[in-house]
Amino acid sequence: MRKIRFKTIPALVLAACVLAFMFSGSVVHAADAPLKVGGVNLQAVVDGSKAGKRALNLVKTKAEKERDVIVAKQKAIKNMERELEQKSMMMVDSSLEEKRAKLSRLKREFELYRGDVQQSIQRAQGQEIRRLMKEIMTIIKTFAKENGYNLIIEKGGAGNIMGGPVVYMEDSMDITPVIIKLYDAQYDKAVGAGQ
User: Fold this and answer.
1) How many whole angstroms separate alpha carbon 162 and alpha carbon 156?
2) Is the pTM of this model over 0.85?
3) With the C-alpha atoms ordered 79, 82, 88, 91, is the resulting torsion angle positive or negative?
4) What is the pLDDT of residue 156?
5) Is 72 helix (H, G, I), strand (E, B) or coil?
6) C-beta separation of 146 from 138 below 8 A
7) Burial of 46 by CB count in 10 Å (0-12 exposed, 13-18 middle, 19+ buried)?
8) Most buried among 37, 42, 67, 182, using CB within 10 Å?
9) Cα–Cα distance for residue pair 91/81, rounded to 1 Å
10) Residue 151: which region, alpha, beta or left (left: phi > 0; alpha: psi -120 to 50)?
11) Higher model confidence: residue 137 or residue 4?
C-alpha cells in the first residue's frame, strides 16, 4: 500500500473542492449562465511582469552586495590562517595562542554574519513576494469580476514555487498573459505617477 505524502493531501483536498464547486456551480448557474473558469500561473506572472522583475532584481542586487562582503571576509580569514600556519614555528606560545583566539573569534563572527545575511535576504525576498502576490491577486479578482469568471485556478507550471494542483487546462482558459499585461500597465502607470 502506497503512503500519501503530507504535501499531496492539500492538493487532493483542493482538487476535490474544485470539482465539487464546478459540479454544484453548474447546477446553480445552469439557469443563469455557464460556469466560466480560468487558470493563471502565478510564478509566470511574477517572473514575466515588470514589477516582478524589478522586485526580484532588487533582492538579487542586495544578495550580490552581501556576497562581495562575505567573500572579502572569507579571504581575510584564509589569509590569517595561512599567515598563522607559516609563522607558527617562529612565534612565541603566547603570541601564537593570541592569534589562534583572534582567528577563532573571526570565524565565529563570520558565521554569525553570514547567517544574518541569509536571513535578511530571505526576509526581503519574502516581503517582495507577499507584496507582489497581494497586487497580483487584486488584479486577478478585478479581471475575474469584470469578465464574468466564476473561478480562477492557480494552474502552476514546471518548476513553479506556487505548486498548482491542476494537471491539465486548455490554453484558451489560461489568463496568465492577460494578467501580466494588466500588471505591467498598472506598474507603468505607478512609475509614471512617481510612486
Assistant:
1) 7
2) no
3) negative
4) 75
5) helix
6) no
7) buried
8) 42
9) 14
10) beta
11) 137
d(CA 102, CA 154): 53
Q: How far is CA 80 from the centre of its chain?
A: 38
From CA 143, how far away is CA 149, in angstroms rounded?
Answer: 8
b/e per residue 148-162 (b: at least 16 CB within 10 A): ebbebbbbbbeebeb
Which residues, listed in sequence order, are joined to residue 152 by a DSSP beta bridge?
A: 38
Distance CA 88, CA 103 (A): 13
Cell numbers for 115 = 547567517
Q: Hey, how many other C-beta atoms are within 10 angstroms of the C-beta on 75?
A: 10
Alpha carbon 148 to chain centroid distance? 30
Residue 66 above 90 pLDDT? Answer: yes
| Superfamily in which the 29-192 domain is placed by CATH | Skp domain (3.30.910.20)
As to burial, measured by CB atoms within 10 angstroms (0-12 exposed, 13-18 middle, 19+ buried), residue 124 is middle
